[in-house]
Design a protein that fits this description.
The protein has 6 helices and 7 strands, in the order E-H-E-H-E-H-E-H-E-H-E-E-H. Helix 1 packs parallel to helix 2. The structure holds 5-O-phosphono-beta-D-ribofuranosylamine.
Length: 201
C-alpha cells in the first residue's frame, strides 16, 4: 500500500505518520509528500525522513486543471493507493474528488459538522462550547465533509486559551490520524456507497 501525504505547512501530522510507519503501527510505504509551498517546514521534515518531496506550485500552472493534472501524473508514477491530507491548504476540484473517490482522507480539528473551515479551534473556543475534538474523514465535493472514519472529543476547560487547546488538539491528532489510516488500510472503514464505483488510480 503506497501513501502520499499532501501538506502545505508545519507538518506535525506528517511527522506523526512517518513515526507510526517506522514503528510498524501503519503497515504501508509513504512514497511522497506533495507540497504546494516551497517554504513550508514540512518539506524539511520530509527531507530529514528520506521521503521524496513533490513540489507543485499552483502559480506555475495556468489553471487548476493543469495543476491537478501534474499532481495526478505524480500519483500515478508513484502508484499511490491512498492520499492523506494533512493541512493541505488548497481545495481539490470536483473532478479530482471524483477520480480519487474513497482514496482521499482528511483530518480536521473539530467535531464535524461543527466548525468547518480554517479557524476551527479558535471558532470552537469563541463559541463557548463544552466540547470540541478531531475528525478524520473521507473527502467528498463539499469542504470539510464526507464519511467519518474516526472522531474523538476533547473537553474545553474554562481555563483553556487558544494555545492550550491547540496543543491538546494536536496531540490528539497525532494519535488519531495513524489509527484512522490503519483502519482504512486494513479495510475496516469504508465510506458508505455513494452510488459510484471506486476508480483505480
Ligand atoms: C491540523 O490541525 C489539521 O487538523 C488541519 O491542519 C493542521 C495541520 O497541522 N487540517 P500540521 O501541519 O500537521 O502541524
Amino acid at each position: 500500500m503506497n501513501l502520499a501525504v499532501f501538506a502545505s505547512g508545519r507538518g506535525s501530522n506528517f511527522s506523526a505518520i512517518v513515526k507510526a510507519i517506522k514503528q510498524r503501527k501503519i503497515k504501508a510505504k509513504l512514497q511522497i509528500l506533495v507540497c504546494d509551498q516551497p517554504q513550508a517546514p514540512v518539506i524539511k521534515r520530509a527531507q530529514a525522513s528520506g521521503v521524496q518531496v513533490v513540489l507543485v506550485r499552483r502559480q506555475d500552472f495556468s489553471s487548476r486543471l493543469d495543476f491537478e493534472a501534474a499532481v495526478t501524473q505524480r500519483l500515478k508514477y508513484y502508484e499511490i493507493d491512498l492520499i492523506i491530507l494533512a493541512g493541505f491548504m488548497r481545495l481539490l476540484s470536483p473532478d479530482f474528488v471524483k477520480r480519487y473517490r474513497n482514496r482521499v482522507i482528511n483530518i480536521h480539528p473539530s467535531l464535524l459538522p461543527a466548525f468547518k473551515g480554517a479557524s476551527a479551534i479558535k471558532d470552537a473556543l469563541n463559541a463557548g462550547v463544552d466540547f470540541t475534538g478531531v475528525t478524520v474523514h473521507f473527502i467528498d465535493e463539499e469542504v470539510d465533509h464526507g464519511p467519518v472514519i474516526l472522531q474523538q472529543k476533547i473537553k474545553i476547560s474554562p481555563k483553556d486559551t487558544l494555545a492550550s487547546l491547540e496543543k491538546r488538539i494536536h496531540i490528539l491528532e497525532h494519535k488519531l490520524y495513524p489509527q484512522a489510516i490503519n483502519l482504512v488500510i486494513n479495510g475496516k472503514r469504508k465510506p458508505f456507497s455513494q452510488g459510484s464505483k471506486t476508480p483505480s488510480l
